[in-house]
Fold:
Amino acid sequence: MDYPMREDLKIGAKFPNFELSDHNGENHKLSQLLHGFPGVLIFSRGYFCPKDRRQMANYVQHLQPELRVNYTNLITVSVDDAMTTREVRDQLNANWIFLCDPERELLHELEMVDTTDPVHGEIYIPYTFILDRDRTIYKIYNGWWFLGRPTAEEVRMDLRALMSQRSDWVYKPKA
Structure:
């Protein structure tokens, strides 16, 4: 099976600085959400997908407590509308931002269209991108099969690798 994605979305390239509304109807650009630090960009198939819910529940339990103190963000994008997205986010007890693409414009722009589900129509192939602070793609996980999705520990290690490139990574007291 072929898992499509726009050709320029590859490791070392900059992820497009798209803008979508969140679960509360507020618009956000990707660069604003990263706010100068690495982040995790998750494309979700939608509310109905048990694999998505399991991935998010794992992140709530194992990553969410660390996000704020690590200055990093998770960002989820799905084709669900704002009300459904709020309900999913609340049910998971997730506190990171969920972006909505119900018109599927970004889905088609990024060419990440999964057409294997006849019930829910065109949905995202569940890719997870690890992005550096300037939107440079560090790693791409293809989560069509659940085992292709990054574990909390893999995300943690990827973010550590990116943060360790900072000039202030090691504390050096002034003499």
Observations:
- Residues 19-163 form a domain with the Glutaredoxin fold (CATH 3.40.30.10).
- The chain is about 30% helix and 20% strand.
